[in-house]
Amino acid sequence: MKQSKSIGILGGGQLAKMLCDSAKKMGYKTIILDPDSESCGKFSSNIHINKSYKDEEALKKMCVMSDVITYEFENVSIDSVEFIEKNSGNIPQGKAPLYISQNRVREKNAVSRLGIKTAKYIQVFNKKDLENDILKIGFPSLLKTCSGGYDGKGQWKLVNECDLENIKLENREYILEEMIDFEKEVSCLVVRGVNKEIVTFPVGENIHEKGILKMTIVPARISKALETKIVESSKMIIEELDFVGPLGIEFFIKGDEIYFNEMAPRPHNSAHYTMDACNFSQFDIHLMSILGLNFPEIKLLNGVVMLNIFGEDRTKVEKISESKEVKVHIYGKNLWKPGRKMGHVNFCGEDIEELINLVKSF
Ligand code: AMP
User: Fold this and answer.
1) Atom of ligand 1 nearest to the CA of 179
2) How many domains, in total, are found in the chain?
3) CA distance 192 to 292
4) Confidence (pTM)
5) Is the shortest distance between the CB of 284 and ligand 1 below 6 Å?
6) In this predicted model, what pLDDT tens digit does every residue of 180-199 receive, in sequence order?
7) N or C terminus of the chain: which is more exposed, having fewer CB within 10 Å?
8) In a domain, 105, yes or no
9) Sign of CA dihedral 249, 303, 284, 38
10) CA 282, CA 33: separation in Å to the nearest integer?
11) Is the shortest distance between the CB of 119 and ligand 1 below 6 Å?
């Protein structure tokens, strides 16, 4: 008989919420730790510890109450994970995936060592470095903060000398990247279990608006050869870096080449389509990976377009009627603010172009 386990989750945002929903379906209990008293994960979890991620008493409580602990965002403090490990908490993903993915230079170093292409990049510490390094990378290029940036925040496009002159650097680490004139952005969600088994979900084609993911199209409209390259590279990354748990990896496609962009050791927004278009969702497989369960074969049941819903889309979402093919997921955040991710909708069907047109009509 399957034992009922308790899953501890660091973080209580929408990813934790969906992880809790999955856990509930599978018969597991959940405990989330989140300093936000109104975090949306609170309503789906069994227990919400409303304390800071660094609160030692709260972390000890998580260790005692949880059979296994995981995280739902990549900026969890390494110190908190170390504290859990020292206090006999079972956190199978450990700190390595966080340590590498929390810094853009570190993650590009780790991946390019495996022979996987990235945009040309250089670490930058100050304006003088930047003035020298731009000569090696050239215009146009992108300057990004090494850590803490997300959804296109913390990055600046440098098109000419004037941009270079105007930019002000803070006292922190940056990365200067060549701008890839890509044709498509894609991602692959790969998961590795405690038992070292690896599974991948179908590659998603991502459409961004202002640096934020707007929609994901599956199957991605790319050649079989490119798809194989993306899947094999993703498996290689998770295996060679010896990570456990889910890893969302983003790539650019230009011609026959793929370029690694970034990765996150957690469920990924671009894989939310799996909730309605696959036999198992990314959240189900995340749980199986940390619990050491054998993975089922992942099947794509139909084509799908996932549309993100932001604060400004409130009236738009009210017009969408749910059906067998159209599934609306609203995260239950209390404030509908412009730019804030409030939910997503999965439009399922056989004809991808038809689905894209349907989504664009909203
Ligand atoms: P990131 O936060 O690195 O995922 O960047 C946000 C978005 O900026 C990506 O989804 C791309 O659309 C764009 N971008 C990031 N890096 C590059 C690059 N090296 N070349 C071209 N576009 C990029």
Assistant:
1) 20
2) 3
3) 10
4) 0.97
5) no
6) 999 999 999 999 999 999 99
7) N
8) no
9) positive
10) 21
11) yes
